[in-house]
Amino acid sequence: MRMTGARLAGVAMAAMALAAMGQAVPALAQGGAGDVVAERKAGLKQMSGHLEAIKEILDSRGALEPVAGRAAEMQRFFETFPARFPPGSDTGESRARPAVWSERAGFEQASANMVAALGKLRAAAASGDAGATSTAFREAGGTCGACHRNYRAR
């Protein structure tokens, strides 16, 4: 059977989706909810480090290429962010509010909003426009904060 371009693209998309799902929550499969909580906390700490580094770059008027790279890495992380909160992972030392699970559609939309904001940041940085990059960085920060207000305990 010959694969058409559309069919081949569909197979490739399915394979990528399965690979992403496999990477998103390996700790849950291996060791339970506590592991997935630890994994997502480590990932969020890394994302915080990216934000701090981007802020330093923008404040020092440094080269924007690293901003684009960091934004792309953050974008990949947040594409799988909802999968990092599977059912049963609402235990342990987590600041996730119950709304993460009870208002799932809103949480998934908040994550999608972050992916979009990071895409704008990445594109602005890649364009070399420092003003647009600073604006996109502030917008991404606002998007991050909006999610925290609804889905993260203080």
Automatic annotation (TrEMBL):
Endpoints of the signal sequence: 1-29
The organism's place on the tree of life at top rank: Bacteria
Keywords, alphabetical: Electron transport, Heme, Iron, Metal-binding, Signal, Transport
Keyword flag Signal: yes
One Gene Ontology MF term: heme binding
Any one cellular-component term (Gene Ontology): periplasmic space
Maturation and modification: Binds 1 heme group per subunit.
Residues annotated as binding heme c: C144, C147, H148
UniProt GO BP: electron transport chain
InterPro entries reported for this sequence: Cyt_c/b562, Cyt_c_II, Cyt_c_prime, Cyt_c_prime_subgr
Keyword Metal-binding: yes
Protein name: Cytochrome C
Species this protein is from: Teichococcus rhizosphaerae
